[in-house]
Amino acid sequence: MITPKFSRFFLATLLFVTGGLIDDAYSQETKSRSQGSHEFCSAHSNYGGDKVGHRELREFTVPASGTLRVDGERNGGISVKGGNVGEIQVRACVNAWGTTEQNARANAENIKISTSGTIVAENRSDDSNWGVSYQITVPRNTDLELTAKNGGISIAGVDGNLEFTTVNGGISLSDVSGNVRGRTANGGINISLTGSSWRGNGLDVSTTNGGVKLNLPVNYAANIEAGTVNGGYKSDIPALNITTEDEKGEWNGRHRSKQINTSINGGGAPIRVKTTNGGVKIETTDGDKKY
Fold first, then answer.
1. What is the per-residue DSSP string for 273-285?
2. C or N terminus of the chain, fewer CB within 10 Å?
3. What are the pLDDT tens digits along the chain (291 aa)?
């Protein structure tokens, strides 16, 4: 005889299994979901006003083959770190808001993350109150194509062809190499170089509105190109001389553009960092400077 207790257990199990199959049929998502107190994806999600937030962490892996493409869609940053891994490990922080907690949870359930060609989140409803941020670990030698709209981009410990753009968000690069190109419209740039020279074709990163900070070892060999149209310039490396030119501008008829193009320690690959509205600061990471 089937008891009521067994019936309830069977029904709960059936719903759990079929729910998982439906989710997997839509996208190659997810190993786990939780709302625990993760530093990357804490349970607190504050939209402000009369909105109630819901946040959950989803984790999954994808094969490490070809170029990794990530589209941050409307809201969310992208952080990529190279490591000793054989596959790409993805942690996605899903944020959703609604008029009630139940509404926010339902909105989050409508967000599915596709891994077919490009990692991108899709909302099966018309609700726009959502966003997804990514924390990704890749093999050290990986090509990247990253796109965000409202969120920063961070890359550390990756070698390859690295291309990235964001509209509203900063850029952070550390211990990267290869052919690196990226820009942001509204956000600062922070770059830390390692080793004695660049490995690869070079680096070219720019912002329209935001400051630029470049840190490099004292013995680093490169051709440094840096500049700002509206902003200050500072460096603790005397070899990086400033050429100041007057240019026509929209405000008060004139502004001063500060540009440098200098080889240090015998020269090397081009390192280009530029901003239109913001300061430029270039510093050595070593205390004992030889310049």
1. EEEEES-EEEEES
2. N
3. 444 443 443 334 333 333 333 233 333 444 344 443 457 887 555 555 678 899 999 999 999 989 999 999 879 999 999 999 999 999 999 999 988 899 999 989 999 999 988 999 988 877 788 999 999 999 999 999 999 999 999 999 999 999 999 999 999 999 999 999 999 999 999 999 999 999 999 999 999 999 999 999 999 999 999 999 999 999 999 888 775 554 444 444 445 678 999 999 999 999 999 999 999 999 998 644 544
Compute the distance between CA of residue 229 and CA of residue 118 in angstroms, rounded to an integer. 36
d(CA 53, CA 101): 7
d(CA 213, CA 178): 20
Interacting residues of 25 by C-beta distance below 8 A, sequence separation 6+: none
Helix ranges, the chain (H): 4-26, 101-109
Q: Measured between alpha carbons, how far is 221 from 263 in angstroms, rounded to an integer?
A: 8
Phi, psi dihedral angles at 138 (to 5 degrees)? -130, 160
